[in-house]
Each structure stands twice: as structure tokens, then as C-alpha cells.
Amino acid sequence: MKLTLSIPRTRPAHLANIPAPKGCESPLLKLTGASQTLIAERDPSAPIYHFNLPALEGEAEMDFEVSELDSADSAIGITTNDADGKLDIEVAGSPFITFHHTTNYPKPVINPILSPNGTNMLREPMEAWGAGEHPWQRGLTLMQGAINGVDCWNERPDHHGFGHTTQDDISISHNPLSLLIESDNTWYEGDRPLMTDSRSYRLFDSSRNAVVLDIAYTLKASHGAVTIGNTKEGGFLCIRVNPSMNANAEGHMGNVYGATDERGCWSLPSHWMDYYGPVGDETVGFAIFDNPQNFRYPTTWHVRGYGLFAPNCWMFKPDHHLSEGESLTFRWRVTVHTGDTGQADIANRFLDYVDGPRVEWE
To answer: What is the CATH number of domain 2-73+352-361?
Structure first.
């Protein structure tokens, strides 16, 4: 196969993506150009390939010979340690995130996510089923407050009317560009299953100034029909930032239209949202990009000055129904960055995500 790429915007080196050629399902592609060879990695949730594109001027063209690969060396910038239901991950030589997948919490959760200097960018999680201010906002989680009338956002120990999520299995794979965590999970009210999901967290090998975490989430009506209700609570991706980053304190929020406070961002649609602020002596933040293929794109946002940050396409919208056996997939990109929105180049990074190189296959 031959591939010609044309670049719509002048960009520094960045993570790019292209649609898969028709009929190609290889996990890897080798792109051989006149002066360089690139490895492209297939997305686990969509027929696209990701690769690291070098710095290029706008409208530049690159030609490649393309061949399929079964394997290649794994990314050397990501290391893991999985023990006692806790997966610790290092990126670029320093600790980055911990993924908890035990029943110690009412749902799988990521916490901490560490700044380059090692400070947690998330609020420290509270005790399971404990009291306090929004204890169910445990870091980075996937949850929603109205699944068949059951509140799977708040947590109550008796489970009556409240849900919890149990991980059924997990797989971890090291790939040339990324680390991939895949899991299957069941949502319950007490011991009654409500639905299942498959989720993947794909962490790309990078420097610590802008780490990319792609999340794919497919909910499945595996135990009968599912109604996803009108609620502001969750939607499904949720982040609770470190209190020092709160927009009610020294932090900041902002969306694609330039709104910079809760009144201008909460419950309103936006293609992306950024939330940043100080932790220790650093300025760091999270940008969430909604995917154009997501249901009700661009999403509305449950984003609060006290530190909650969640794309939510359900708030003030009609209930959505899935018949038994149906499924619904969401994808988001989370960029964990240093600096403020402008310094992190969030607007252009979003365009890299949704409007990448133009492609001609032969």
C-alpha cells in the first residue's frame, strides 16, 4: 500500500491519527518514507491508527510505503507494576498514575494522577461508603446517576436504590506507542445486575508536559433493557481535581468558546473543556476532548468551581433507551498537561484529535 499525507496546519511534533485503509485490521502498520520510518498503532475501539508525526509546515505532503506488522518493540517510556489489585504506572521515568481494580472501592478508580514533580492532581479519595463532601468523587472514574432508576453516582452502603460497579476481568498490554488497560465490568444494585461495560484506558508514551490518555467506554444492555436517565450526575467520565486547583480557589476552567467560569460552562455544550491550577509550585491541568462520534456531540458539562469535571450529555435531556443486547460507545481524550490552557496549546491539540492529516491510500 501507498499512503500520502497532507498536513492542514503547521504543527510541532505531535500524536496524529488516520483512518484505517479499507479491509485492514492489522494491529500495527509500518510507514516507510524517504527519510524516516514510523510505526502506527491501531485503536482498540475504532478503525483508526495513531502515530507520532514529526514537526511539519502547513500543507506539507509526505509519502509512505505501508506494510502490515504483527509486532514491534514496546514503548520504553512506560513501565508498570501490578500487585494487590493496584496498577502503578510510570511515564518518562517518573510515577504518573495508579489504577485501583479491587473491591476496596465501589467502582474501579484512577488515583493519584501525579504532576511532573510528584504532586497528586486529584483530590485524595475518601474511605469507601464514608461520609464527607462528595466522597463518591474518587479521582478519575466512570459513573452515572440514573441507570434504570438506580443512582450509580452517589454511594450508600445498603445498596438499596444505589449502584456499584465490579470489575470482572482485566488485561494489560504494552505496545509500541502505548500502554493499554482493558476491562469488563458489571453494574449492580445490590446483587442485581443492571448492565455491563467494556472500557479501555490507552496511555501514550510521551514527555510529562502533555500526557495523552484515551478512554473508550462501551455500555451494554446485557441484563435486559437499559434506560439512561436525565441527570446532571456524571456522564460517564468524571474527574475530581486537587482542591488547590479548584476554580473557586486559585484554579481556572475554560471551554472552546472562551467561557472561564461555572456560569459560562456548567450545563452548556462544548467540544472540549480545560481545568487547570496550581499544585505545589507547578501549574497543571486536565483537558477533556469529546469525540465527534459520541452520542449528543458536542457534550454538555457538569463542571463545578469546587473541582468536579465531567462531560455529561444526559443533563436536561430526554432519557435514552437501549433494548436488550444493544450497546453504546463513548470515546474521550484526556490530556494531562503542564501550564495553562494557552501554554498547553489545548485548542490545537483538540484539532489534532478531530482534524488530523488528510489521507490518500493507493
So the answer is: 2.40.10
